Amino acid sequence: MDHVTAELLVRTGPDASMGKLMRRYWVPVMLSSEIAEPDCPPVKVKILGEKLLAFRDTNGRPGLVDEFCAHRGASLFLGRNEEGGIRCSYHGWKFDISGQCLELPSVPQLAPRMRIKAYPCIERGDILWAYMGPADAMPEPPGLEWCLVPTAHRFVSKRYQASGWLQAMEGGIDTTHASWVHRFELEQDPMHKRAQANKYIKADKNAVFDIEEAPHGLTIFGRRNGEENSHYWRITQWIFPWFTLIPPFGPHALGGHMWIPIDDESCWAWSINFLPDRPLPEDELQAMKEGKGIHVKYVPGTFIPLANPGNDWLIDRQAQKDNLSFSGVEGFSVQDASLQESMGPIQDYSKEHLVVTDRAIVMARRMLEKAAKELSSGKNPPALDAASQHVRAASVLLDRELRAEEWAKDALASLENPVFSV
Predict the structure, then answer these.
(1) CA–CA separation, 172 and 254 (whole Å)
(2) Residue 9: inside a domain, yes or no?
Protein backbone atom coordinates (compact mmCIF):
# COMPACT_ATOMS: atom_id res chain seq x y z
CA MET A 1 0.00 0.00 0.00
CA ASP A 2 1.45 3.36 -0.97
CA HIS A 3 2.14 6.06 1.59
CA VAL A 4 -0.67 8.38 0.45
CA THR A 5 -3.33 5.67 0.76
CA ALA A 6 -1.96 4.51 4.10
CA GLU A 7 -2.07 8.05 5.48
CA LEU A 8 -5.67 8.46 4.30
CA LEU A 9 -6.78 5.22 6.01
CA VAL A 10 -5.04 5.58 9.37
CA ARG A 11 -5.65 9.26 10.17
CA THR A 12 -8.96 9.70 11.98
CA GLY A 13 -8.97 13.20 13.46
CA PRO A 14 -11.75 15.73 12.77
CA ASP A 15 -10.04 17.18 9.68
CA ALA A 16 -8.85 13.88 8.16
CA SER A 17 -10.74 12.22 5.31
CA MET A 18 -11.14 8.94 7.21
CA GLY A 19 -12.09 10.83 10.37
CA LYS A 20 -14.86 12.63 8.48
CA LEU A 21 -16.08 9.32 7.09
CA MET A 22 -16.16 7.64 10.49
CA ARG A 23 -18.10 10.56 11.97
CA ARG A 24 -20.99 9.79 9.61
CA TYR A 25 -21.72 6.62 11.63
CA TRP A 26 -22.86 6.10 15.20
CA VAL A 27 -19.59 5.68 17.12
CA PRO A 28 -19.34 3.20 20.03
CA VAL A 29 -17.94 5.29 22.85
CA MET A 30 -18.13 3.38 26.12
CA LEU A 31 -20.07 0.79 28.09
CA SER A 32 -23.30 2.23 29.45
CA SER A 33 -22.26 0.82 32.84
CA GLU A 34 -19.32 3.25 32.98
CA ILE A 35 -21.82 6.01 33.74
CA ALA A 36 -24.32 3.78 35.50
CA GLU A 37 -26.27 6.22 37.69
CA PRO A 38 -27.78 9.72 37.36
CA ASP A 39 -25.34 12.37 38.58
CA CYS A 40 -22.52 9.81 38.75
CA PRO A 41 -18.89 10.92 38.37
CA PRO A 42 -18.04 12.01 34.82
CA VAL A 43 -15.65 9.92 32.73
CA LYS A 44 -12.91 11.16 30.41
CA VAL A 45 -13.31 9.85 26.87
CA LYS A 46 -10.88 10.13 23.99
CA ILE A 47 -12.37 9.02 20.69
CA LEU A 48 -11.30 9.76 17.10
CA GLY A 49 -8.62 12.03 18.56
CA GLU A 50 -11.05 14.24 20.51
CA LYS A 51 -10.86 14.74 24.26
CA LEU A 52 -14.43 14.52 25.58
CA LEU A 53 -16.35 13.94 28.79
CA ALA A 54 -19.21 11.52 29.33
CA PHE A 55 -21.76 11.92 32.11
CA ARG A 56 -25.34 11.03 32.99
CA ASP A 57 -27.53 13.89 34.14
CA THR A 58 -30.06 14.01 36.95
CA ASN A 59 -32.77 12.62 34.66
CA GLY A 60 -30.56 9.69 33.62
CA ARG A 61 -29.84 11.05 30.13
CA PRO A 62 -26.31 10.36 28.82
CA GLY A 63 -24.19 13.17 27.44
CA LEU A 64 -20.87 13.47 25.61
CA VAL A 65 -19.36 16.96 25.64
CA ASP A 66 -16.04 18.73 25.23
CA GLU A 67 -13.86 17.97 28.23
CA PHE A 68 -12.90 21.62 28.69
CA CYS A 69 -14.90 24.55 29.99
CA ALA A 70 -15.68 27.42 27.60
CA HIS A 71 -14.46 29.96 30.17
CA ARG A 72 -10.76 29.34 30.89
CA GLY A 73 -10.33 25.83 29.51
CA ALA A 74 -10.27 23.92 32.81
CA SER A 75 -11.17 20.24 32.62
CA LEU A 76 -14.80 19.55 33.45
CA PHE A 77 -13.65 16.14 34.70
CA LEU A 78 -12.82 18.00 37.89
CA GLY A 79 -16.32 19.45 37.99
CA ARG A 80 -19.52 18.49 39.77
CA ASN A 81 -22.25 16.47 38.06
CA GLU A 82 -25.35 17.92 39.70
CA GLU A 83 -28.89 19.15 39.07
CA GLY A 84 -29.06 18.51 35.34
CA GLY A 85 -25.55 19.43 34.27
CA ILE A 86 -21.81 19.40 34.78
CA ARG A 87 -20.48 22.40 36.74
CA CYS A 88 -16.90 23.58 36.36
CA SER A 89 -15.06 23.70 39.67
CA TYR A 90 -13.07 26.79 38.65
CA HIS A 91 -15.80 29.45 38.36
CA GLY A 92 -19.07 27.54 38.51
CA TRP A 93 -20.08 27.60 34.84
CA LYS A 94 -22.56 24.79 34.25
CA PHE A 95 -23.38 22.91 31.02
CA ASP A 96 -26.09 20.40 30.12
CA ILE A 97 -25.80 17.32 27.88
CA SER A 98 -26.47 19.45 24.78
CA GLY A 99 -23.48 21.68 25.63
CA GLN A 100 -25.68 24.66 26.53
CA CYS A 101 -24.49 26.79 29.43
CA LEU A 102 -27.19 26.69 32.10
CA GLU A 103 -25.55 28.92 34.69
CA LEU A 104 -22.81 31.54 34.54
CA PRO A 105 -22.78 32.93 38.09
CA SER A 106 -20.60 36.01 37.54
CA VAL A 107 -22.44 37.26 34.41
CA PRO A 108 -25.82 35.41 34.32
CA GLN A 109 -27.11 37.22 31.24
CA LEU A 110 -24.35 35.70 29.10
CA ALA A 111 -25.28 32.06 29.86
CA PRO A 112 -27.65 31.64 26.85
CA ARG A 113 -24.82 32.63 24.50
CA MET A 114 -22.27 30.17 25.87
CA ARG A 115 -21.91 26.59 24.63
CA ILE A 116 -19.39 23.79 24.47
CA LYS A 117 -19.21 21.07 21.85
CA ALA A 118 -21.65 18.21 22.47
CA TYR A 119 -22.63 15.10 20.53
CA PRO A 120 -26.03 13.34 20.45
CA CYS A 121 -25.99 10.02 22.32
CA ILE A 122 -28.09 6.87 22.33
CA GLU A 123 -27.81 3.64 24.30
CA ARG A 124 -28.11 0.33 22.51
CA GLY A 125 -26.64 -3.11 23.16
CA ASP A 126 -25.18 -2.08 26.58
CA ILE A 127 -23.13 0.60 24.80
CA LEU A 128 -23.26 4.39 24.67
CA TRP A 129 -23.05 5.53 21.04
CA ALA A 130 -22.44 9.08 19.81
CA TYR A 131 -23.03 10.72 16.48
CA MET A 132 -20.13 13.06 15.71
CA GLY A 133 -20.98 14.12 12.16
CA PRO A 134 -23.11 16.82 10.49
CA ALA A 135 -26.49 17.22 12.19
CA ASP A 136 -28.42 16.98 8.93
CA ALA A 137 -26.80 13.64 8.00
CA MET A 138 -27.51 11.62 11.17
CA PRO A 139 -28.21 7.97 10.22
CA GLU A 140 -30.58 5.48 11.81
CA PRO A 141 -29.45 3.89 15.09
CA PRO A 142 -27.27 0.79 14.66
CA GLY A 143 -29.15 -2.31 13.45
CA LEU A 144 -26.57 -4.97 14.31
CA GLU A 145 -28.29 -8.12 15.54
CA TRP A 146 -26.43 -8.26 18.84
CA CYS A 147 -27.68 -4.73 19.63
CA LEU A 148 -31.28 -5.86 19.30
CA VAL A 149 -31.39 -9.09 21.34
CA PRO A 150 -32.42 -9.07 25.03
CA THR A 151 -29.65 -8.26 27.50
CA ALA A 152 -29.49 -11.83 28.81
CA HIS A 153 -28.63 -13.04 25.28
CA ARG A 154 -25.52 -10.85 25.02
CA PHE A 155 -22.13 -10.16 26.64
CA VAL A 156 -20.06 -7.13 25.64
CA SER A 157 -16.53 -6.17 26.64
CA LYS A 158 -13.86 -3.75 25.49
CA ARG A 159 -10.10 -3.55 25.80
CA TYR A 160 -7.41 -1.01 25.09
CA GLN A 161 -5.14 -1.86 22.17
CA ALA A 162 -1.85 -0.05 21.56
CA SER A 163 -2.08 -0.02 17.78
CA GLY A 164 -3.87 1.88 15.07
CA TRP A 165 -7.41 0.82 14.26
CA LEU A 166 -6.72 -0.41 10.72
CA GLN A 167 -4.16 -3.11 11.51
CA ALA A 168 -6.40 -4.28 14.36
CA MET A 169 -9.54 -4.42 12.21
CA GLU A 170 -7.72 -6.21 9.41
CA GLY A 171 -6.89 -9.01 11.83
CA GLY A 172 -10.62 -9.47 12.27
CA ILE A 173 -11.22 -10.13 8.58
CA ASP A 174 -8.16 -12.38 8.21
CA THR A 175 -9.44 -15.85 9.13
CA THR A 176 -6.38 -17.79 7.93
CA HIS A 177 -4.52 -16.94 11.12
CA ALA A 178 -6.89 -19.12 13.19
CA SER A 179 -5.15 -22.24 11.88
CA TRP A 180 -1.89 -20.97 13.35
CA VAL A 181 -1.93 -18.63 16.31
CA HIS A 182 -5.11 -20.13 17.87
CA ARG A 183 -4.63 -23.76 16.88
CA PHE A 184 -3.69 -25.30 20.25
CA GLU A 185 -6.31 -23.41 22.29
CA LEU A 186 -9.42 -24.26 20.28
CA GLU A 187 -10.41 -27.35 22.23
CA GLN A 188 -9.51 -25.98 25.67
CA ASP A 189 -11.55 -22.80 25.60
CA PRO A 190 -15.12 -23.01 27.00
CA MET A 191 -16.60 -21.25 23.94
CA HIS A 192 -14.90 -23.55 21.44
CA LYS A 193 -15.33 -27.04 22.89
CA ARG A 194 -17.49 -29.69 21.24
CA ALA A 195 -17.14 -28.10 17.82
CA GLN A 196 -16.33 -30.08 14.69
CA ALA A 197 -14.80 -26.90 13.36
CA ASN A 198 -11.71 -27.43 15.48
CA LYS A 199 -10.50 -30.46 13.54
CA TYR A 200 -11.10 -28.86 10.14
CA ILE A 201 -9.24 -25.68 11.09
CA LYS A 202 -6.32 -27.68 12.46
CA ALA A 203 -6.16 -30.13 9.59
CA ASP A 204 -6.39 -27.64 6.72
CA LYS A 205 -4.15 -24.63 7.31
CA ASN A 206 -4.59 -23.18 3.82
CA ALA A 207 -8.12 -21.88 3.47
CA VAL A 208 -9.37 -20.86 0.03
CA PHE A 209 -11.35 -17.61 -0.13
CA ASP A 210 -14.24 -16.28 -2.14
CA ILE A 211 -15.20 -12.71 -1.30
CA GLU A 212 -18.27 -10.74 -2.27
CA GLU A 213 -18.91 -7.04 -1.99
CA ALA A 214 -22.30 -6.38 -0.39
CA PRO A 215 -24.39 -3.38 0.74
CA HIS A 216 -23.00 -3.82 4.25
CA GLY A 217 -19.36 -4.28 3.23
CA LEU A 218 -17.85 -7.71 2.52
CA THR A 219 -18.96 -11.31 2.93
CA ILE A 220 -15.89 -13.53 3.23
CA PHE A 221 -16.28 -17.22 2.39
CA GLY A 222 -13.37 -19.28 3.74
CA ARG A 223 -13.26 -22.89 2.52
CA ARG A 224 -11.39 -25.76 4.11
CA ASN A 225 -11.54 -29.50 3.57
CA GLY A 226 -14.33 -31.05 5.62
CA GLU A 227 -15.38 -34.68 5.39
CA GLU A 228 -14.69 -36.86 2.36
CA ASN A 229 -17.54 -35.38 0.33
CA SER A 230 -17.85 -31.94 1.91
CA HIS A 231 -16.15 -28.63 2.41
CA TYR A 232 -16.13 -26.74 5.70
CA TRP A 233 -17.05 -23.10 5.16
CA ARG A 234 -16.56 -20.22 7.57
CA ILE A 235 -18.58 -17.17 6.50
CA THR A 236 -17.36 -13.93 8.06
CA GLN A 237 -19.01 -10.53 7.67
CA TRP A 238 -17.22 -7.19 7.56
CA ILE A 239 -19.73 -4.41 8.14
CA PHE A 240 -18.57 -0.98 7.07
CA PRO A 241 -16.54 0.67 8.53
CA TRP A 242 -15.29 -1.16 11.67
CA PHE A 243 -17.56 -4.12 12.56
CA THR A 244 -16.97 -7.83 12.02
CA LEU A 245 -19.12 -10.86 12.71
CA ILE A 246 -17.21 -14.10 13.25
CA PRO A 247 -18.63 -17.57 12.64
CA PRO A 248 -19.69 -19.58 15.68
CA PHE A 249 -18.08 -22.81 16.83
CA GLY A 250 -20.51 -25.68 17.36
CA PRO A 251 -23.33 -24.91 19.81
CA HIS A 252 -21.66 -21.81 21.20
CA ALA A 253 -22.54 -18.14 20.88
CA LEU A 254 -21.97 -16.06 17.78
CA GLY A 255 -19.25 -13.46 17.99
CA GLY A 256 -18.48 -9.98 16.82
CA HIS A 257 -15.89 -7.22 17.12
CA MET A 258 -15.54 -3.46 16.65
CA TRP A 259 -12.32 -1.47 16.34
CA ILE A 260 -12.81 2.19 17.22
CA PRO A 261 -9.93 4.68 17.06
CA ILE A 262 -8.98 6.43 20.27
CA ASP A 263 -6.45 8.33 18.21
CA ASP A 264 -4.27 7.37 15.25
CA GLU A 265 -2.03 5.10 17.34
CA SER A 266 -4.47 3.30 19.64
CA CYS A 267 -7.98 1.92 19.58
CA TRP A 268 -10.75 0.31 21.59
CA ALA A 269 -11.21 -3.30 20.59
CA TRP A 270 -14.74 -4.43 21.44
CA SER A 271 -15.78 -8.09 21.71
CA ILE A 272 -19.36 -9.34 21.67
CA ASN A 273 -20.88 -12.80 22.15
CA PHE A 274 -24.60 -13.36 21.68
CA LEU A 275 -27.31 -15.89 20.97
CA PRO A 276 -30.26 -14.74 18.86
CA ASP A 277 -32.88 -17.05 20.32
CA ARG A 278 -31.99 -17.76 23.95
CA PRO A 279 -29.99 -16.47 26.93
CA LEU A 280 -26.29 -17.24 27.11
CA PRO A 281 -25.61 -20.42 29.11
CA GLU A 282 -24.58 -19.56 32.66
CA ASP A 283 -21.26 -21.42 32.50
CA GLU A 284 -20.27 -19.70 29.24
CA LEU A 285 -21.37 -16.29 30.53
CA GLN A 286 -19.21 -16.77 33.61
CA ALA A 287 -16.26 -17.76 31.44
CA MET A 288 -16.73 -14.59 29.36
CA LYS A 289 -16.73 -12.48 32.54
CA GLU A 290 -13.47 -14.20 33.54
CA GLY A 291 -11.85 -13.08 30.30
CA LYS A 292 -12.00 -16.32 28.36
CA GLY A 293 -12.92 -16.84 24.72
CA ILE A 294 -12.62 -13.57 22.80
CA HIS A 295 -12.58 -11.52 26.03
CA VAL A 296 -9.59 -10.68 28.24
CA LYS A 297 -8.39 -10.39 31.81
CA TYR A 298 -7.68 -6.80 32.84
CA VAL A 299 -5.20 -4.87 34.89
CA PRO A 300 -7.48 -4.26 37.91
CA GLY A 301 -9.51 -1.07 37.66
CA THR A 302 -8.77 -0.54 33.95
CA PHE A 303 -9.65 -1.81 30.48
CA ILE A 304 -5.98 -2.58 29.77
CA PRO A 305 -5.35 -6.30 29.20
CA LEU A 306 -3.34 -7.97 31.93
CA ALA A 307 -1.06 -9.27 29.16
CA ASN A 308 0.16 -6.20 27.28
CA PRO A 309 3.22 -4.76 25.51
CA GLY A 310 4.71 -3.63 28.83
CA ASN A 311 5.16 -7.24 29.97
CA ASP A 312 5.71 -8.83 26.52
CA TRP A 313 2.12 -10.12 26.62
CA LEU A 314 3.20 -12.60 29.34
CA ILE A 315 4.58 -14.89 26.64
CA ASP A 316 5.28 -18.40 27.96
CA ARG A 317 8.17 -19.89 26.00
CA GLN A 318 7.87 -23.25 27.76
CA ALA A 319 4.20 -23.59 26.80
CA GLN A 320 5.22 -22.67 23.26
CA LYS A 321 7.99 -25.28 23.25
CA ASP A 322 5.70 -27.98 24.69
CA ASN A 323 3.01 -27.26 22.05
CA LEU A 324 0.55 -26.19 24.70
CA SER A 325 0.32 -22.84 22.96
CA PHE A 326 1.40 -22.06 19.42
CA SER A 327 2.31 -18.43 20.19
CA GLY A 328 3.00 -18.75 23.91
CA VAL A 329 0.43 -16.01 24.57
CA GLU A 330 -2.77 -16.88 26.42
CA GLY A 331 -6.22 -15.97 25.11
CA PHE A 332 -7.58 -15.46 21.60
CA SER A 333 -7.88 -11.66 21.75
CA VAL A 334 -4.49 -11.12 23.36
CA GLN A 335 -2.91 -13.49 20.85
CA ASP A 336 -4.27 -11.28 18.08
CA ALA A 337 -3.44 -8.04 19.87
CA SER A 338 0.15 -9.11 20.60
CA LEU A 339 0.85 -9.60 16.91
CA GLN A 340 -0.93 -6.41 15.83
CA GLU A 341 0.74 -4.32 18.55
CA SER A 342 4.11 -5.82 17.63
CA MET A 343 3.79 -4.09 14.23
CA GLY A 344 4.17 -0.71 15.95
CA PRO A 345 1.55 1.95 16.70
CA ILE A 346 1.05 2.38 12.96
CA GLN A 347 2.19 -0.43 10.72
CA ASP A 348 4.76 0.35 8.01
CA TYR A 349 2.58 -0.70 5.10
CA SER A 350 5.36 -0.13 2.57
CA LYS A 351 7.15 -3.23 3.84
CA GLU A 352 4.28 -5.72 3.63
CA HIS A 353 3.99 -8.39 0.94
CA LEU A 354 0.36 -9.38 0.52
CA VAL A 355 -0.65 -12.73 -0.98
CA VAL A 356 -3.86 -14.22 -2.34
CA THR A 357 -5.25 -15.01 1.14
CA ASP A 358 -5.09 -11.28 1.93
CA ARG A 359 -7.65 -10.37 -0.72
CA ALA A 360 -10.31 -9.40 1.82
CA ILE A 361 -7.88 -6.93 3.39
CA VAL A 362 -7.10 -5.40 0.01
CA MET A 363 -10.80 -5.12 -0.86
CA ALA A 364 -11.68 -3.53 2.49
CA ARG A 365 -8.91 -0.96 2.09
CA ARG A 366 -10.13 -0.04 -1.38
CA MET A 367 -13.71 0.32 -0.18
CA LEU A 368 -12.65 2.55 2.71
CA GLU A 369 -10.47 4.68 0.48
CA LYS A 370 -13.21 5.02 -2.13
CA ALA A 371 -15.86 5.95 0.45
CA ALA A 372 -13.60 8.57 2.08
CA LYS A 373 -12.83 10.20 -1.26
CA GLU A 374 -16.43 10.10 -2.47
CA LEU A 375 -17.68 11.66 0.76
CA SER A 376 -15.73 14.80 -0.08
CA SER A 377 -17.72 15.06 -3.31
CA GLY A 378 -21.06 14.66 -1.53
CA LYS A 379 -21.76 10.93 -1.92
CA ASN A 380 -23.10 9.12 1.16
CA PRO A 381 -21.00 6.21 2.47
CA PRO A 382 -22.29 2.60 2.55
CA ALA A 383 -24.14 0.76 5.34
CA LEU A 384 -25.67 3.83 6.98
CA ASP A 385 -29.15 2.26 7.08
CA ALA A 386 -29.91 -0.26 9.82
CA ALA A 387 -31.32 -2.82 7.38
CA SER A 388 -27.96 -3.21 5.63
CA GLN A 389 -26.47 -4.33 8.96
CA HIS A 390 -28.95 -7.22 9.26
CA VAL A 391 -26.45 -9.93 8.35
CA ARG A 392 -25.12 -12.97 10.13
CA ALA A 393 -21.99 -15.11 10.15
CA ALA A 394 -22.10 -18.91 9.85
CA SER A 395 -20.01 -22.06 9.77
CA VAL A 396 -21.34 -24.98 7.75
CA LEU A 397 -20.45 -28.25 6.02
CA LEU A 398 -21.61 -28.28 2.40
CA ASP A 399 -21.42 -30.86 -0.33
CA ARG A 400 -18.36 -30.23 -2.46
CA GLU A 401 -20.57 -29.51 -5.46
CA LEU A 402 -22.36 -26.64 -3.68
CA ARG A 403 -21.13 -23.06 -3.69
CA ALA A 404 -21.36 -21.33 -0.32
CA GLU A 405 -22.40 -18.10 -2.03
CA GLU A 406 -25.54 -19.74 -3.38
CA TRP A 407 -26.31 -21.42 -0.05
CA ALA A 408 -25.87 -18.14 1.84
CA LYS A 409 -28.35 -16.21 -0.34
CA ASP A 410 -31.21 -18.15 1.23
CA ALA A 411 -29.76 -19.35 4.52
CA LEU A 412 -28.42 -15.98 5.70
CA ALA A 413 -30.90 -13.71 3.96
CA SER A 414 -32.79 -12.86 7.15
CA LEU A 415 -32.10 -12.67 10.87
CA GLU A 416 -35.21 -14.83 11.30
CA ASN A 417 -33.32 -17.84 9.98
CA PRO A 418 -31.72 -20.36 12.35
CA VAL A 419 -28.04 -20.15 13.26
CA PHE A 420 -25.78 -22.40 11.20
CA SER A 421 -22.84 -23.67 13.19
CA VAL A 422 -20.48 -26.64 12.95
Answers:
(1) 14
(2) no
